Amino acid sequence: MTPFVPSQYSLSRWEVVIVGDGIAGLSCALLLAESGIKPLVVSRGKGNTYLSQGGIAAVVSEEDSPYLHYLDTLKAGRLLNDPLAVKIAVYEAQRAVLKLTQWGVEFDKNENFFELALEGGHSKRRILKVRDYTGRAIYEALHRRAQELKIPFLKGELEEIYTSEGRVVGALIKTEKGFEVLNLKVLVLATGGASSLYLRNTNIQSIGGESLGTALRVGTKLVDTEFIQFHPTVLKGTKFLISEAVRGEGAILINEKGERFVNELAPRDEVARAIYSQLKIGQQVFLDFKPLTQRGVRIEEKFPQIWGILRENGFNPYRQPIPIEPAAHYFIGGIAVDTYGRSSVKNLYAVGECACTGMHGANRLASNSLLEGIVFALRSAEDIALKLPFIKEGELKLKPTYFGEEVNVNPHEVINKIQKLLWEKAGIVRNGVELREALKGLDEILTSLEGIRLRSLEGKKLFDLTLVAKSIVLNALRRQESRGAHYREDFPYERETYERIRFEVSLEEVLKST
Asked: Does residue 142 contact residue 389 with C-beta atoms inside 8 Å?
């Protein structure tokens, strides 16, 4: 497709550009810098790493084993996982934890060893954490290390990727000063997932995921997009999730009658559907901290961030159960990459939540996301460092399509329509009739945006978001079974036919009218 090109921009040249400064983007940047390569990191502000509460899953105890972690991951992923990706992640977990500690992350310890937490789906305590703000601690430590290494940063948003003869040659960044075109050898996307496309979500950015559509337009494929993980316990009416670690320590789920209705440590998809079922019959659902407090657990000491947020919102977990609801949380699918983060477009890498290595299969095991982010980011950095001396700078040939004119489009209205379509028609529980209705609505949006995507910055963003939304619905229709985070009430059981099938979506398939 013709790329979006502004008529005025500044130009700079870089060897490696990394878009995103969460655990995946910064881990890649730090290892490259330690290898003598200074990448440019593009950041639009704090992302989802910063919000991560629970921790990072890694086998460090002698009572545990990577093989057990491997089996737990396959079980949660309902055997749709890529076994090689899972093995790499669990067997390189110690190395990842070591790098994080070397970069300044101080995980909780007791008098003998690391203090390890238990979360749903894990057969052993293997979650390393920093109180209940692990993501923030990692984010801040990695940023401090980046400053020490003098890694350059650029505040802005990725707007376009430029390719030539099947390989990436440039990227367009929108900054406060205007547009900047980066002529580059290697581009690494670490831009996060697309769960904010749902009406109720936990993502820190108001809307995200457009970079997946941008990548799709230059030739990558999106895979496993039907699998959206809904976090079961989000403080009602907010984006604030209450970590699974709270349930791991004994908190229980009850309805307004005070009845327990689910095993709190079951995989997240089961817990989310159980809560959804209660809400559907008119029952409110609450997270009850009483079992913790009866054991003498001091919530403000064990979970200081959660305690603070609850108190800010007028709740006291010592005195009352906390109202909760599920919300879209983690995008399991993403840009199809290999175990070195390489996409199908030469020199275009993707790491973290925007990428799909196949590690999670049909459902992400708790706290495996930070692990995946750093393990495969380190592998990407090593692959880039090895090959960079042999990569020649590509030639940028840009023909302007955008001249700054105003185009009549209401982005909030379009985004709200996409979010409602996905939440109501492709949410926690799905069926073929509603998925087809969602496709029809998304096709109408794509048609309305096609004429302005090259002449309007907002139009281009909305077009890319709609491409991603449609890829979710297309794969949800294709998977005529229920597996992991994908539940079809018209096909409520796993089917052997789909046990090893992973669905990819290309640009041509998404643009094809349904």
From this structure: no
| Residue in 165, 229, 271 with CA at minimum distance from that of residue 368 | 229
Q: Which two structure tokens, joined as six digits, stand for 175?
A: 């900054």
Cα separation values, 156 from 5, 18, 41, 71, 153, Å: 16, 12, 10, 41, 9
DSSP string, 472-502: HHHHHHH--S-BTTB-BTTB-S--GGGTT--
CA distances from 361 to 77, 111, 224 (A): 4, 37, 8
- What three-state secondary structure class fits 224? coil
Q: What is the pLDDT of residues 111-153, one digit of tens each?
A: 889 999 888 789 999 999 998 789 899 999 999 999 999 999 9
pTM of the entire structure?
0.94
Does residue 412 sit in helix, strand or coil?
A: helix
Could you tell me if 155 and 333 are in contact, meaning their C-beta atoms sit under 8 angstroms apart? no
Rg value, the chain, Cα: 22
What pLDDT, in 10s, does the model give residues 416-441? 999 999 999 999 999 999 999 999 99
Distance in angstroms (rounded) separating the CA atoms of residues 56 and 105: 12
The token duo for 39 is: 């990448």
Question: 235 φ, ψ to 5°?
Answer: -55, 125
Please identify every residue annotated as catalytic.
268
> Using CA atoms, how far apart are residues 52 and 87, in angstroms rounded to an integer?
23
d(CA 374, CA 378): 6
CA angle 17, 140, 136 (to 5 degrees): 110
**Residues pairing with 154 in the sheet:** 42
